[in-house]
Amino acid sequence: MAHTLHTNLPKSTTIFTSPSCTFVFIITLCIISLYTLHHHHNHQAPATPSTTAQHPPLISAFLNSGSNYTISNYLRHLTLHPHLAGTPPSSAVVDYVKTHFESFHLQTHVTDYSVLLSYHLHSSLTAHFSNTTAAVPLPLTEPGLDSDSEVVKPYHAYSPSGSAYGKAVYVYHGREEDYRALASAGVDVKGCVAVAKRGGGMSRNAVVAKAAEKGVLAVVMYTDNNGGGVERGTVLDGVGDPMTPGWAATGGDVERLGVEDSEVLKRFPTVASLPISAETAALILESLEGARVTHLWKDVDLVGKLDRVGPGPTFLNFTYQGENKMATIQNVFAVIRGSEEPDRFVVLGNHRDAWTYGAVDPNSGTAALIDIARRYSLMMRMGWSPQRTIFLCSWDAEEFGMIGSTEWVEQNLANLGSKAVAYINVDCAVQGPGFFAGTTPQLDDILVEVTKKVTDPDFSDSTLFEKWRTSSEVPMIQRLSDVFSDFAPFLHHAGVPSIDLYYGKDFPVYHTAFDSYDWMVKYGDPFFHRHVAVASVWGLLGLRLADDPIIPFNYLSYALQLQNHTDSLYKLLEGDDVSLHPITSTIQELEDAAKQVEDEIKKMREEESEGRVSVMKRRILNDRLMLAERGFLDSDGIKGRQWFKHLVYGPASESKLGFFPGVADAIYESKEGKKQQAMIQHEIWRVARAIQRAAAALKGQLN
Ligand SMILES: *[C@@H]1O[C@H](CO)[C@@H](O)[C@H](O)[C@H]1NC(C)=O
Ligand SMILES: *[C@@H]1O[C@H](CO)[C@@H](O)[C@H](O)[C@H]1NC(C)=O
Ligand SMILES: *[C@@H]1O[C@H](CO)[C@@H](O)[C@H](O)[C@H]1NC(C)=O
Ligand SMILES: *[C@@H]1O[C@H](CO)[C@@H](O)[C@H](O)[C@H]1NC(C)=O
């Protein structure tokens, strides 16, 4: 598909496609013309390959070769049709990515998995209002979507099929505290159909699980401010293929659990659910009588209209029929082999499957990934070869529960565990204005450094860092405890240091039929400069992590962050009879190890400038830096969700703590009435031991 490059070249560059041009001319001239270079297959790379660390002008070549034309063209092609995982149109998108990787002469391959996906067959929702005897059918899809639209009807993947008839009741975010507020106002939700509003830190799965616990028959969920759209999504608990929990669903001879196996069943909700639009929700909510509870809830929307929460008098008649079935999913990879350390991996990943057209989610990221492939390939033609191996990964079936990335991580767990330097994720690359990022803390510094090298896409006289710093919330860098994209298997299961990047947040067309190329051009990124900026930050991070002779990790920043987490925990536990001393003293160990490494790095840099560092000596230091994160893993994992092995960052059941998920769960369970200080203290000890393992790995010596 190389012609797509030509058709989108700015006019001024087309003159350079003339074969009469010499390469020297082109290279000295500039960067835009570097596209052209790519098409001269007779071009010979310089004899000795060099890394960006050895030859810094390669970095400028990378930065200057970004193109909003090219990237917008990729996005337009990727989003021509909806491409839900496991459906026929999704293979066209596989081909698009694969053909592009190949056209850049990158080593390309595709891995298939057979997994259990879940599709919509039939749904209906009718209201029986008290003022009329006729049943009123409520719309379940976006206006303008007719029955033969190629966009899938809104549904919740892995919802059980079922029907329910009951009084409507409003449960706000569906958290424990919301049910408590309802109960204290005398509202009995048993036997009702619940209306829930997405938010409050609750995943869809958590909402239905909690509703089932409370005796609700079925749940309809709406999302505020999504412009008539309906938010599709998965209600699967945890991540990865449900039939192969903890191992890879490769084709052929592989153990698969039965659908009735308790390990499989516990991943599925027991009550049925459907997404609805805010407009449909308003029709129901306006008709409710009964208790007034809404003053307890901040920011109840449908402003002023919602007064009482029911139950009833409106009845809802709910039907959902879905189908869980085996489907083939495909991950696409381009691999750039490291010249010095081919067995050290820097992994850049984005998912490709989409609920609808996927212009924001996820193909703004896919367009950026392809653009990085193009830019890396230009650099290779200029003689670049990375020190470590770079993987560019295009995941499938993320929307069903990070399935493509999880199966791959499970398949390669031992290799990734011993050889992966870092994972850099981009899902919805561009949702609107403003830069956002989450990292594991040893990556904070390198992220900041890289954003200082990239021009802000909206203010060309400023660096991205400068705008990010002045306009961002505090803290600037988020942590990655929540399970909302493909970094989850890398970080939470394999302990690989991770980064997640995006422009804009909370975009209104999330998982709706309106997430289209047109929306992107109108609202998300009219000139595609933000796309280019994300690709630049992402690709530059890849270059630094693959090419820096010493892996650019700072564990002092990890120790500081852990101390900050511990201070927050201390405030939360004030008055409780538990001690945080085990954690504080192991943080001190980690800090000491981090300082020692910093000193060694300084010394090694000096020796390096005199050419006195052996490859082996550098590698020993790098291995300590790479493996320290693995120390936070615990083979028993988080209680009740043991696939999640990371004890510092990972999902807690229902908590806003955002770190130490095991401790968070123990505190949460205590608040449920039973005082369980011993359990909290035990979880504190487990975190302390995890930090100690990380410190020991960083020191790199056996006791
Ligand atoms: C009946 O109540 C519903 C919900 O409040 C309202 O939308 C509808 O207009 C009412 N119909 C009549 C005939 O009053
Ligand atoms: C609910 O709807 C189904 C079909 O959609 C219908 O068969 C059933 O009679 C309805 N139930 C009530 C109580 O109206
Ligand atoms: C690329 O950027 C230029 C300069 O801002 C702009 O004029 C052009 O329309 C953009 N191209 C696309 C496809 O958005
Ligand atoms: C932790 O750091 C954040 C900002 O980085 C700060 O707002 C917060 O107050 C700190 N927490 C504690 C308990 O020191």
Automatic annotation (TrEMBL):
Transferrin receptor-like dimerisation domain ranges (all copies): 578-699
Q: Which InterPro entries match?
A: PA_dom_sf (IPR046450), Peptidase_M28 (IPR007484), Peptidase_M28B (IPR039373), TFR-like_dimer_dom (IPR007365), TFR-like_dimer_dom_sf (IPR036757)
Q: What is its EC number?
A: 3.4.17.21
Identify the GO cellular component terms for this protein.
Answer: endoplasmic reticulum membrane
Q: Does the keyword tRNA-binding apply?
A: no
Q: Which reaction does it catalyse?
A: Release of an unsubstituted, C-terminal glutamyl residue, typically from Ac-Asp-Glu or folylpoly-gamma-glutamates
Gene3D superfamilies tied to this protein: 3.50.30.30, Transferrin receptor-like, dimerisation domain, Zn peptidases
The UniProt entry lists membrane topology as: Single-pass type II membrane protein
List where the protein spans the membrane. Answer: 15-37
Q: List the GO biological process terms.
A: proteolysis; regulation of meristem growth
Which keywords annotate this record? Glycoprotein, Hydrolase, Membrane, Metal-binding, Metalloprotease, Protease, Signal-anchor, Transmembrane, Transmembrane helix, Zinc
Which subcellular locations apply to this protein? Endoplasmic reticulum membrane
Which cofactor does the UniProt annotation name?
A: Zn(2+)
What GO annotations for molecular function exist for this entry?
A: metal ion binding; metallocarboxypeptidase activity
For this protein, the record's Pfam families field holds:
Peptidase_M28 (PF04389), TFR_dimer (PF04253)
Cross-referenced PANTHER family: GLUTAMATE CARBOXYPEPTIDASE AMP1-RELATED, N-ACETYLATED-ALPHA-LINKED ACIDIC DIPEPTIDASE
- Name the family: Belongs to the peptidase M28 family. M28B subfamily.
Its recorded name reads glutamate carboxypeptidase II
What is the organism of origin for this protein?
Answer: Cynara cardunculus var. scolymus (Globe artichoke)
Species lineage, top-down? Eukaryota, Viridiplantae, Streptophyta, Embryophyta, Tracheophyta
